[in-house]
């Protein structure tokens, strides 16, 4: 039985109860599974920022190229004759979108910026950085799950919505889930609204694998940090030396996956739960799906969107696809 949450600490208590529930459910499944959305605690945010700075992790540079050098194209696709809310799902530190935000402010556009993120930590970093960089920007940070916060944004304002979902975050869902997600998103948008999604494209498989299998081991630490987070927040006793990161990329399906391998048979305690691992048993940690142009077209079509524009980086490794309802 879950204890009812005290109003004052409602978010925090309920969040850690959901975290525990998800973890126990995932580690009781076959194969064992953890959700990559829990990667992003304070330490995970820091590790992900290190990943974005790695030369192998081309995604950031590609999308930065789009936001820095093709800002005009983005702005004309958005259109700014009517006021709007720019809602960013998984905004993180808003490094890429800040170029768009700056441009829109220079043009004196009537818009609010509503960054949504599961990490309250990164949202406060974002707010601090952006208020300094673009003082005239109206920022309304929303901490929580995408759809809960999107619904809140709708209750706060009835202006036209421009939804940003960048960085290849959509790739963190297996294809079937991504379709469900787009359909859910579609339900929340009305004519005139736009969705701008960043897709990492299928490319030389060596390039893809290298981005997630760095020699320096930052991606490995990023995965292992979730075990450490469970030790800290859920009173678990994972020994990080007894798990090893394993990365795969299947160029046919486009699925890039990370696993943790249990290096020996072991029993782990999480609060008053116990989880057994066999030697070499896997935990399925994350998928980073890659897309062909046809994959993107099919996804848009099956979720009742229409593609109105596509903006690629100069290498054509990444695309920001602009959809309307
Ligand atoms: C933040 C989901 C876009 O999948 O490429 C980076 C996360 N994981 N390296 C990705 C990640 C391992 C990243 N996204």
From TrEMBL:
Spell out the Pfam families in the cross-references. Methyltransf_33 (PF10017)
Q: Alphabetically list the UniProt keywords.
A: Methyltransferase, Transferase
Superkingdom of this protein's organism: Bacteria
User: What residues does the Histidine-specific methyltransferase SAM-dependent domain cover?
Assistant: 20-323
Query: Which EC numbers characterise this protein's activity in its record?
Result: 2.1.1.44
Any one GO molecular-function label of the UniProt entry = L-histidine N(alpha)-methyltransferase activity
Enzyme kind, highest EC tier: transferase
Q: Which biological process annotations from GO are given for this protein?
A: methylation
Q: Would I find Methyltransferase among this entry's keywords? A: yes
The name this protein carries in UniProt is L-histidine N(Alpha)-methyltransferase
Species this chain originates from? Chryseobacterium caseinilyticum
